Amino acid sequence: MNNWYVITGGPSSGKTTTVQLLQQLGYTTTIEHARHYIDLKRAAGRTVLETRANQAEFQRGVLDMQLQQEASLNPEKVVFLDRALPDSLAYYRFLGLEPDPRLLEAIQEVSYRKVFILDLLPLASDYARTEDVPAQRRIHDLLTEVYLSLPVPVQAVPALSPQQRVEFILDHLIPVDG
């Protein structure tokens, strides 16, 4: 068992805002790799549409980053992850892609202290987010399905103000001896 907490939810559920607020409180956090992957490709001259055109390649790139990140984290340190490996499985399912065998193998080994699934907020479009409202809901449902299938505690986080969500999460952490 490690001391990592996953912050997840469908697109536009406030994950990154929540993780950034936790970071401001002094907690160790991670970044969302899908957005980071898009940003790296944009810096190399590719558009978001070009980057997302080959979804299998996109998902592999995100998975590579996620695998590397989780392998580098200290299991004894409290860390809040902006998405985690099981999120990739939900996206493979959403896209109708055959999951990467490395993902399926890694998911058998995952161990998170607790997963917080943020209730959806109204969909806000931006340069990296291409989903519509039905896709937002479907991804959220797939994330919930994937995490509930794993042997990790899952906690729904209601649609509250960002600060209230952080307080809710901190109030629902699992003590190290619990």
From TrEMBL:
A Pfam family recorded for this sequence: AAA_28
Annotated Gene3D superfamilies: P-loop containing nucleotide triphosphate hydrolases
The protein, known as: ATP-binding protein
InterPro entries: NadR/Ttd14_AAA_dom, P-loop_NTPase
UniProt KW keywords: ATP-binding, Nucleotide-binding
SUPFAM superfamilies referenced in this protein's UniProt entry, alphabetically: P-loop containing nucleoside triphosphate hydrolases
Domain NadR/Ttd14 AAA: 5-165
GO molecular-function term, one example from the UniProt record: ATP binding
